[in-house]
């Protein structure tokens, strides 16, 4: 598994926290985000991560902004992407298992660093379920 991660100016510190987690866990990642607080437009960063996710079945995406909402809206405009804004561990597991989400969106202004790591860890460990869940994902793709 590899991670494509990006952020806008509102998600710098949260991305740093997650990158530290990836390094500690030996999880390979590519950082497509910004490292300054200068205002940037998030849609381009979301699109870059989504392209990486779609290009490689072993890559999942993580997008960080102030709330996670803007990044998720932008990411979900890309065909084949199922991005979810997550603020709790249960939803992290459910969105990966039931919705087969391939992009996780987090908000630095609404999710603390410790919880963000737990959410990310849970999401990465969860496995998409087949059966009725696959039927629903197929319908989303249509």
UniProtKB/TrEMBL annotation:
Residues the record lists as binding D-ribulose 5-phosphate: 8-9, 66-70, 99, 109, 132, 136
Domain of life from the UniProt record: Bacteria
Catalytic residues in the record: 65 (proton acceptor), 98 (proton donor)
InterPro entries documented for this protein: RpiB, RpiB_LacA_LacB, RpiB_LacA_LacB_sf
Record keywords, A-Z: Isomerase, Lactose metabolism
Transmembrane segments: none
Recorded family membership: Belongs to the LacAB/RpiB family.
Protein name as catalogued: Ribose 5-phosphate isomerase B
Source species: Vagococcus fluvialis
Upper lineage: Bacteria, Bacillati, Bacillota, Bacilli, Lactobacillales
């Amino acid at each position: 598994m590899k991670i494509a991660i990006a952020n806008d100016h509102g998600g710098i510190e949260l991305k740093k926290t997650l990158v530290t987690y990836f390094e500690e866990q030996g999880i390979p990642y590519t950082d497509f985000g910004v490292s300054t607080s200068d205002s940037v437009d998030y849609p381009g960063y979301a699109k870059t991560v989504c392209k990486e996710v779609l290009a490689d079945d072993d890559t999942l995406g993580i997008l960080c902004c102030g709330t996670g909402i803007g990044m998720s809206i932008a990411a979900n405009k890309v065909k084949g992407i199922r991005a979810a804004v997550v603020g709790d561990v249960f939803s992290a597991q459910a969105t990966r298992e039931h919705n087969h989400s391939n992009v996780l969106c987090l908000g630095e202004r609404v999710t603390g660093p410790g919880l963000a790591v737990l959410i990310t860890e849970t999401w990465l460990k969860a496995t998409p379920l087949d059966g009725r869940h696959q039927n629903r994902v197929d319908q989303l793709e249509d």
